[in-house]
Amino acid sequence: MPQRHPALPADADAITEEAVYRDRRRLLAAFGLLPTLGLAGCSEAAPPASKAVVTPAQAKSGFRTAEEQTRELDATTYNNFYEFGTNKDDPANAPKTLRTKPWSVAVGGHCARPGTLALEDLLKGLPPQERIYRMRCVEGWSMVIPWLGVPLADVLKRFEPTSKAKYVAFTSLADPRQMPGVRVPTLDWPYREGLRIDEAMHPLTLLATGMYGKALPQQNGAPLRLVVPWKYGFKGIKSIVAITFVERMPKTSWNMSQPSEYGFYSNVNPAVDHPRWSQKSERRIAGSASKLFAERIPTRPFNGYAEQVASLYAGMDLKKWF
Ligand code: MTE
């Protein structure tokens, strides 16, 4: 991910976090500066909670694209994993220092059954499924990858999230002994991501453990990563060690780093350009296409998964909630 261009000012106010906004409204109301009715009817304070229902057939239609796949060699040598360096080939070339066995994940926050589980126990009884998804990076390239994994919803339900669980926050490992990139402050470690609870529970959202029929290699986020095919690739947090049910929109790494460029939602959207480049098209790295000179194809809303997910965002201004 490109760092902020020095010519561009940090626009820390570009995003008014839901919590901050609500607090401000509450304060204004306390001083009698807001009509009470306005508060109740305020649709700006938070995006509407979706009541979207995705039919099993609709969901399934997104599970396996027939588009030409990316070669395994390309998907495993052209990576973003800043914990192992910032060049595309750094993660693949890094010594294999990540210890993925044993691996445990702490699940907590607003749920009835919090706990820290060994990865095997977290996934017990959930056979891995193959999903062939498009992956669109915010930088303007894309791939088609056969993943192995389990629906995130199946894992989350085991912890019985309560009604206060409005969002799910994810955290990556950040161990400088295993991850040399963490010794450098390229991001505010650990890497963090988040989803709204209905996004997390969506049938397309995958907790991946493998790709190309094998376990995930270190550079692709071993042993456990998120795959959310309708969002820009940076939402796909790697090497997850914690999952937390939270009430407020959680902080996310790229939004913290460059708030005017990377939003919380980050749904693939050709109509909303990145401040420094167009999002209308993408370099599709698939088949024998060279990584640097791959053909450009048009980018589709929600990365081509609009039929399955657009209803989650009904009534939301997608330019504002980018
Ligand atoms: N997760 C962690 N922990 N650290 C990272 O630097 N990079 C993100 C995402 N997950 C990243 C991460 C970005 S920017 C992208 S595009 C995808 O991982 C890249 O996944 P890939 O290398 O498997 O293609």
List the helices and strands and how they pair.
Elements (H helix, E strand, L loop, with lengths): L17 H13 L5 H5 L15 H6 L10 H4 L14 H4 L10 E6 L5 E4 H4 L6 E8 L4 E11 H6 L9 E6 L19 E5 H4 L5 E6 L2 E2 L9 E3 L12 E7 L6 H5 L23 E4 L11 E3 L7 H4 L13
Parallel strand pairs: 1-10, 4-11
Antiparallel strand pairs: 1-2, 3-4, 4-7, 5-6, 5-10, 7-8, 7-9, 11-12
The structure holds ligand MTE.
Features of this protein?
322 residues, alpha+beta, Sulfite Oxidase, Chain A, domain 2, seven-stranded mixed β-sheet, five-stranded mixed β-sheet, globular, binds ligand MTE
Summarize the structure.
It is built from ten helices and twelve strands. The chain has 322 residues and is of the alpha+beta class. Strands 3, 4, 7, 8, 9, 11 and 12 form a seven-stranded mixed β-sheet that branches. It has a five-stranded mixed β-sheet with strand order 2-1-10-5-6.
Poorly predicted regions: 4-45
Q: What is the CATH third-level topology name?
A: Sulfite Oxidase, Chain A, domain 2
Count of spatially separate domains: 1
The proportion of strand residues reads: 15-25%
Radius of gyration: 20 Å
What is the overall number of helices?
Answer: 10
Approximate shape: globular
CATH class division: Alpha Beta
Largest sheet: 7 strands, mixed
For the record, the CATH architecture stands as Alpha-Beta Complex
> What is the string of SSEs from the N terminus onward?
HHHHHEEHEEHEEHEEEEHEEH
In helices, the fraction of residues equals: 10-25%
